[in-house]
């Protein structure tokens, strides 16, 4: 778009309030109170839902969060609805079960899609992310470093499962540190299918216990020989005695930022890598692409080399797009 062109009706912008729709009340996965919040996946902190006047998300996301209330607006993917003069529709993002993209249409025909965390690779629990037609695509490049492509989730699961079964076959105490909504869940399911003994940390038992395919053992405060114990990232880990095995699964392995002290590190990402996001843009052919996230700058460069009108979103130059009371 040249300097003389009018601004599109729908633009994404960053402010101190987070990512949202410029000149509108909508915020995406906001950390602060919002008039209207879009909750893109079950990874959203449940404690924040009560801050918002209204929150839009899929029924599966709200169910996974154990959330209900008059301010929640559950919307099934594929169903459109109107709000504040705009048309909205949710599409699967492939990130996690229930995770969604948000498509928005303006009365003048301009369209925008908050793609967010997106994955082209389907899993047993989540379909592949849809490629949504829109004038503007808003990508999240949190784990989209162009030089570090992510392995497929199937390949990562196969690697982690082989390591885990090898340790359990030697009757070792096994500690697995992984996101319980993604890598940790799928590894637990695979271990249970193989007849392994699995014990999630008590903070994860409520969520996992509703859907796991086998019996979960209670966590008794220590690692046990022949048992796989799942911990989420960020918690203080239990002591590891002689002969214990520890495996870390996460996207941090891709960038060399995984915590140290593990016997094995397996790269696992529920996020689209640079090649997947480039393919999305090439397939849809949007008029413009806006990119947020830690690898926004290199992804924007790659998009521009591919012929796309791409710009990074940064708080410093976007604050004016959220006028007070909008």
Structure description:
The protein is of the alpha/beta class and 326 residues long. The chain folds into two domains: 12-148 and 271-321, Ribonuclease Z/Hydroxyacylglutathione hydrolase-like (Metallo-beta-lactamase, Chain A); 153-267. Helix content is 19%, strand content 25%. It has helices spanning 59-64, 153-169, 183-193, 202-209, 274-284, 296-305, and strands at residues 12-15, 18-21, 26-28, 36-38, 54-57, 72-74, 80-83, 86-92, 100-105, 111-116, 136-140, 174-177, 197-200, 227-231, 245-250, 264-267, 288-292, 310-312. The strands form four sheets. It has a seven-stranded mixed β-sheet with strand order 7-8-9-10-11-17-18, with helices on one face. Strand 13 (197-200), helix 4 (202-209) and strand 14 form a beta-alpha-beta unit. Helix 2 (153-169) packs across helix 3. The two termini are 25 Å apart.
Q: How many individual domains? A: 2
CATH H-level superfamily title of the largest domain: Ribonuclease Z/Hydroxyacylglutathione hydrolase-like
Please write the string of helix (H) and strand (E) elements: EEEEEHEEEEEEHEHEHEEEHEHE
Total DSSP E strands:
18
Query: Major sheet, described briefly?
Result: 7 strands, mixed
As for the CATH topology of the largest domain, it is Metallo-beta-lactamase, Chain A
User: Termini distance?
Assistant: 25 Å
Strand content: 15-25%
Q: Major sheet: order of its strands?
A: 7-8-9-10-11-17-18
